[in-house]
Design brief:
With about 400 residues, the chain is mainly alpha-helical. Helices cover about 75% and strands about 0% of the residues. The chain has 21 helices and no strands. Helix 5 packs parallel to helix 7, helix 13 packs antiparallel against helix 14 and helix 19 runs parallel beside helix 21. The radius of gyration is 30 Å and the shape is extended. The mean pLDDT is about 90. This is TAF1A polymerase.
Length: about 400
């Protein structure tokens, strides 16, 4: 019966698609290409009245296969993509964007720019809200390529010195690229989202032409506008900008405080801790200790010499002054059940001593202050240091023996 025929046909298509996916998972790109060809042929023979929209599936699978296939060429890839553009107008701009990415990955910058320019001039009926966003992405990436051209021209001028070169075609081209890039980059970063690369490029343009206030406003908006998703990089860019322009420590600390709340393990926590330790305000020094303890909760910091140096310096100052010992106790109470095994085991002591003597010293000092002279880490490292006749390890041993563990 016709119903049974349609049912069998549908099953055969599903089986064929499963073979394609299986071949892709096993990285058998030639086999995957063959099955995809069969799948496309089966769709062409599908006379059912069901509403089927397989074009996006074919586009995504086909793109991946051609990208990975050892015998595929750029000509074949471009030919396939051009066919995909005509399969569904709703996906036209997405396909254009992916085509541009592929061209860029293969170093074909001019071709990518041309592709984006053609996509920008595309129109089909009334533009929907989704198409409007996609068009802005097209314009934004074209703006990035304009920024790339501007950067190239800028470097040429800087190599020869800017003075006396006002009439050079290179400078005129540079200013032309600046105007085109600035317009498109400025538009995209108004839309709530994560636009790290676009923001960095736009700020670079503004800084080069001396528009520091506008650059500051852009970065502040990107970091603090509640409509934008929480983004640690936004605060990093603002911090780097403020530091670059010699802003006050108060401003820098304010930015890093928010970054600490979002990502307590960020590498800038070293800078944050250093600034807080130097502060005359007790509240900030207290925060500094909290910051370094929180950073060392993460495995990525276990062998960070700078971090352990910050920790050792601050806890040593507290122990010597005998003031604010309660700060250390408060931080240690929530960690005493797991830090000894996490940071201060005999195995780690042996490995650290063999790999980095400075790291061993800093960690041994902290272990001695927190756990006392019977700490496995402290005992092993201090013994090895004294055996190697390193003076600072003998001083370390005397210091820990003199002071009771916190």
């Amino acid at each position: 019966s016709s119903h049974e025929h349609r049912l069998n046909f549908k099953k055969s298509k599903e089986v064929c698609l499963n073979y394609v996916q299986d071949a892709m998972l096993q990285k058998q790109w030639k086999r995957a290409a063959e099955f995809l060809t069969f799948y496309i042929e089966s769709l062409e023979k599908d006379f059912s009245r069901e509403c089927i929209g397989p074009s996006e599936m074919i586009w995504r699978i086909g793109t991946e296969i051609l990208y990975r296939h050892s015998h595929s060429s750029m000509k074949e890839f471009s030919s396939f993509i051009e066919q995909m553009k005509t399969l569904g107008v709703k996906r036209y701009l997405k396909v254009c964007l992916e085509h541009a990415f592929h061209l860029l990955c293969n170093g074909l910058i001019d071709e990518a720019y041309q592709n984006l320019s053609l996509a920008e001039s595309w129109q089909f009926g009334e533009q929907t809200a989704i198409q409007d966003k996609e068009m802005k992405l097209i314009q934004a990436y074209r703006g990035l390529l304009d920024y790339y051209s501007w950067s190239k021209q800028k470097n040429i001028l800087l190599e020869h010195g800017l003075d006396g070169f006002e009439d050079l075609p290179a400078e005129q081209e540079m200013h032309h690229c600046f105007r085109k890039a600035a317009v498109n980059l400025k538009e995209i970063i108004k839309i709530p989202g994560v636009w790290d690369l676009f923001v960095k490029c736009y700020v670079d343009l503004l800084e080069f032409y001396g528009d520091r206030n506008e650059a500051h406003q852009v970065l502040s908006e990107y970091a603090y506008n509640s409509k934008f998703p929480a983004n640690p990089n936004a605060h990093v860019y603002l911090y780097q900008f403020l530091k670059r322009h010699g802003e006050s420590k108060k401003s820098l600390i304010s930015v890093l405080k928010i970054l600490h709340d979002i990502v307590p393990s960020h590498e800038l926590m070293i800078d944050f801790n250093t600034m807080l330790q130097k502060s005359k305000k007790r509240k900030k020094r207290r925060l500094g200790l909290e910051v370094i303890f929180a950073a060392l909760d993460y495995a990525g910091w276990k062998e960070n010499v700078k971090a352990w140096n910050c920790m050792a310096r601050q806890v040593k100052q507290i122990v010597i002054s005998k003031k604010h010992l309660d700060w250390i106790k408060q931080e240690w109470n929530s960690r005493k059940d797991w830090w000894p095994a996490f940071h201060f085991s005999r195995y780690l002591a042996k490995r650290n001593w063999q790999g980095n003597e400075s790291l061993s010293y800093e960690k041994a000092l902290v272990a001695g202050i927190l756990l006392g002279k019977d700490s496995k880490y402290f005992k092993y490292v201090s013994h090895q240091g004294c055996k190697a006749q390193v003076k600072r390890f003998r001083i370390l041993k005397k210091f820990v023996n003199k002071h009771n563990p916190v």
